[in-house]
Amino acid sequence: MTLIFKQLFNFLKLLNSDTGHNQLAAGLACGLILGFAPFLSLQTVLVLMLVFVFRIQMGAAFLSAFFFKFIAYLVDPLSHQLGKGVLENPSLRDLFVEMYNMPIVPMTRFNNSIVMGSLVLSVVLAPFAFFAFRTAIIKYRILIVDRFKKTKAWKAFTATTIYNWYCKYDALYG
Amino acid sequence: MADTNTTSPAPVKPKKAKGPIRWEAIIPFAVIIVLIGLYFKLFFDTHMRSLAEFAGYHATGAEVNIRTFETSFFDASLRVGGIELTNPEKPTHNNLNIGEVRFSLLWDALLRVKFVINEASIENISFDQPRKKPGKVKPPEPEKESALQKEAEKLKDEALEKAKTQYDDNVFGNIANMMSGSNESDEMKKLESKLISKEKMKAFEATLQQKQKDWEERLKKLPKASEFQALGDRLKKVKTSGFSKPEEVQKAVAEVQTIMSEGQKKIDEVNATKNDFDKDLKLTDEGLKEIRTQIEKDIKDLQAHFKIPKIDAKSIAMTLFKRYTGPYFAKINHYRALFYKYAPPNIVNKDNKPEVTIQPRPRERGTNYEFGKVNAYPTFWLKKAMISSQFNSADPNSKNGNLKGEILDVTSNQLVTGRPTMASITGGFPSENIEGLEFTLKFDNRTKDALINAVMGVKSFAISEKQIVESPDLALSFKSAIGGVRSTIDLVNYKELTLKVVNEFKDIDYQVAAKNKDVEGILINVFKEARTTNMIAEGKGILPRFDLDIHSDLGQLLQKGFEREINAKIEELKKKIKEFVDNEINKQKEIIEKQVNELRTKAEAEIKKVQAQAEEQKKLAETKIQEAQKDIENRANAEKAKAEAEANRRIEEERQKAEVEKRKAQKAAEDEAKKQAEKLKKQLGF
Q1: CA A53, chain centre distance (Å)
Q2: Which site among B15, B26, B32, B112 would you substitute to test the A interface, given the most A Cβ atoms closer than 10 Å to its Cβ?
Q3: What's the pLDDT at B354?
Q4: Do residues A37 and A27 make contact, with C-beta atoms less than 8 angstroms apart?
Q5: Is residue B625 predicted with pLDDT exceeding 70?
Q6: A64-89 pLDDT, tens digit each
Q7: What chain B residue is nearest to A82 in terms of C-alpha separation?
Q8: In sequence order, what are the residues at sequence separation of 6 or more whose Cβ sits closer than 8 angstroms to the Cβ of residue B253?
Q9: Which of A122, B499, B531, B631 counts the most CB atoms within 10 A of its CB?
Q10: For B281, how many CA atoms within 13 A lie in the half-sphere containing its CB?
């Protein structure tokens, strides 16, 4: 739980810094996939591994996953119809038969209509989501963060000892 | 921004740009993996063992012990050793001991999210073994009793109540009471006042005496012999011949008829008396018949009072097997309750709610598609499980059985494997004298109706001392016996159960102890005849409702034996009752019958005598009349003959006269004809 909270603070810190917009956008996009995927599935493990191994912002991923879980729940009927259409497609049947009887692959639970539909939706939406989030973050930093930093209140706050202590702590223990 | 003109700032060491890979996280990740590995290596097995014991305790209601629980990730294997399931009815013993259960899953299938066991083995199985220390039994939970438990308890109570009401120990108690045959004469004296026939006879006797008086009076009033004699004398005086005038005849006949009329009146009087008497006699006979019927009824009542038993073969068998089957029924009910508690709702139809048909729910769970192919793995498949257990003859305390068996193709989808689940076990438990154990099971879920068929048999097993009947009058037990059992179970769609269990018992050594030594001797003789018997339990029903009917030939065997022994006693008792009835009632009955007979003889003789006299006089009168009639007829005939002769003479005279006249007329006619003819000849010229 501490780790999650730390990641969330890091997310906020990074969001308000000048760098790391790609990490944040990638984290949010990965969170989208996590949110649409069932918790116990191979794709969840793979995405978590990606988030963990590559420098993708974990807080953003968890927050995004939490949010997209609700979205996924709402679009379940759509996912079901989409997954059903894919799984019942005769041209893909041989592929699915092979996949179903292959090692590892059945762990994705692709044979479930909602899982398949959600997977297709999330994989298709993830690249768009990445660029959308990236653009949004940059715009946020310019339009909101920079303006906020120019305010007198913020300047006054940065002149306080507490802020200096925080900066020192952040430099040491980040 | 900072003031750069006054002081030169310290050179800021540029932060080293971080690459795309989070190298610093590798070590913590590795540590976590190692920790997880360590947990599985060091603690997982212990925790799983405790969890299994805890779950087993709650599922079976008694302590479950597992000695070892070993898992291996790399082999995907499980080995559970020393499994002991405490018997909740007898915590000092285990229901089941299993030496070891081991199996390993195929990684090839696991990677496909399938659970396939090539071969599993269950070793060293034994039953009813004593425990080192008594096992903990789960206390009942009355307060949080669920509807399911209530239902299960209700079923159990119903079965117990049924057994209690149907098969109590009284059947032997009554037989023993009857056979002891004590103090019946005292009892009979007490019953004397209750005899209805005796009361009836008293009333009848009084009526009869009154009738006797009445009849004596009526007999006195019957016409006397002298009266008939007087009529006879009068008849003799009547003239019956030599009548000179017809008026005399008429007078004589009229007088005879008058006398006859008087006689007829007297005869009618006698006949009426006889008819009345016959009617009375008939009523008396009916009264006597009624008394005899009442006496029979009284005898039956007396017999009933002395509990002469009607032996019921089924009751005897049920009584004998009640204590034998009781613990097994309790066990069946226990497991039935467990089944009802844990079985899926669609199988047991819990709470009597209508069954919900299984259908995909796309909103929450979506639809799972199976892309199976021939020879693919089903989700679960236990290909073969070997069961083996070997009796250690060198160890005198060894209680293991000699078992050999296999279970084939336990699977979640028989359509994929194309095979039904089969199981077969053979063997025995030498230390328990259990031989010829056979068990076969077939579970076929490939058809529309799932079929489970199981056959279980034990050729012979020893039955140690077992109390059967225990009442104040009688104690009966199996001292020893050899049993055999064969049972078949058919379950269709997990609901329709048909069960048949045939138990054979041989060389039964009964131990009989009765308060009364005569009874004991009789029972020993009876049970000698029933050293081989059987007990058949049959049942059919829709689960969880299930009715079991038990029957046995023991009842019939004992019935014959008892009937033979008891009949002698019954006859003896009947004789005593008859004697009692004879002494108390028949004596009185005989007196009444004697009185009736006397009355009958006397009255009949009297009436007969009067009737004879009346008939004699009647005959005399009739003779007189006949004589008179004959005389009159003779006279009439003579007059008639005379008149006829005179008439004939006159007729002859008239006839002769007419003849002469006729001849004269004829001659004149002939002459006239001749004249006319001559005249005609002349005219014609001849």
Answers
A1: 14
A2: B112
A3: 46
A4: no
A5: yes
A6: 898 898 899 889 889 999 999 999 99
A7: B366
A8: B625, B628, B629
A9: A122
A10: 15
Give B360-395 pLDDT, tens digit per residue. 444 457 788 878 776 778 888 888 888 887 776 666
CB half-sphere exposure, A168, CA atoms < 13 A: 6
Six token digits for residue B266: 């007297």
Quick one: tokens of B264?
Answer: 């007829």
Q: What are phi and psi of B95, to 5 degrees?
A: -70, -40
- The pair of structure tokens assigned to B105 is 């899953």
Confidence bin at B355 (pLDDT 50/70/90)? very low
Residues of B whose CB is below 8 A from A117: 366
Number of other residues whose CB lies within 10 A of the CB of residue B135: 22
3-state SS record for B487-502: EEEEEECCCEEEEEEE
**Contact state of B366 with A113 under an 8 Å Cβ cutoff:** yes
B189: CB partners within 8 A, 6+ apart: none
Residue A41: phi and psi, rounded to 5, are -155, 160
Closest of B267, B257, B274, B276 to residue B613, by C-alpha: B267
Q: Closest CB to A97: pick one of B25, B114, B371.
A: B371
Determine how many CB atoms are found less than 10 A away from the CB of residue A126.
18
What SS3 class is residue B523?
helix
Domain limits of chain A? Answer: 2-173
Residue (of A106, A98, A40, A38) closest to A73 by Cα position? A38
Each residue's pLDDT tens digit, B46-103: 999 999 999 999 888 899 999 999 998 888 899 999 999 998 888 888 888 888 898 8
The whole-angstrom separation of Cα B622 and Cα B613 is: 14
Q: Is the preceding peptide bond at B344 cis, omega within 30 degrees of 0?
A: no
Contacts 24+ apart (CB under 8 A), B488-492: B488/B453, B488/B454, B488/B455, B488/B456, B489/B452, B489/B453, B489/B454, B489/B455, B489/B456, B490/B451, B490/B452, B490/B453, B491/B451, B491/B452, B491/B453, B492/B449, B492/B450, B492/B451, B492/B452
A55 vs B18: CB contact, 8 Å cut-off?
A: yes
Among candidates B36, B29, B52, B149, which has minimal Cα distance to B98? B52
The one-letter amino acid at B104: S
Q: What is the Cα–Cα distance from B31 to B258, expressed in whole angstroms? A: 154
What would the two tokens of residue B16 be?
């080293």
Q: How many CB pairs under 8 A join A and B?
A: 77
Quick check: B112 and A106 CB within 8 A?
Answer: yes
Report the gap between the CA of B3 and the closest CA in chain A (Å): 15
Cβ atoms of B503 and B536 within 8 Å: the answer is yes
Cβ–Cβ contacts within 10 Å for residue A32, how many? 27
Residue type, B205: E
Angle, CA A162 vertex, CA A159 and CA A165 arms, to 5°:
100
Using only C-alpha atoms, chain A has a radius of gyration, in whole angstroms, of: 20
* Helical axes B170-180 vs B517-528, angle rounded to 10°: 120
Separation CA B383–CA B419 (nearest Å): 10
Judge if the upstream peptide bond of residue B14 is cis by omega within 30 degrees of 0: no
Looking at the predicted structure, is the pLDDT value of residue B166 above 50? no
Angle at B53 between CA B47 and CA B58, to 5 degrees: 125
Residue (of B452, B430, B569) closest to B499 by Cα position: B452
| Cβ contact A102–B112 (<8 Å) | yes
Q: Cβ contacts (< 8 Å) between A88 and chain B: which residues?
A: 369
Q: What pLDDT, in 10s, does the model give residues A35-70? A: 999 888 899 999 998 888 888 888 888 888 988 988
Whether the Cβ atoms of residue B338 and residue B153 lie closer than 8 Å to each other: no
Q: Measured between alpha carbons, how far is B469 from B475 in angstroms, rounded to an integer?
A: 5
Residue B136 sits at φ, ψ, to 5 deg, of -80, 135
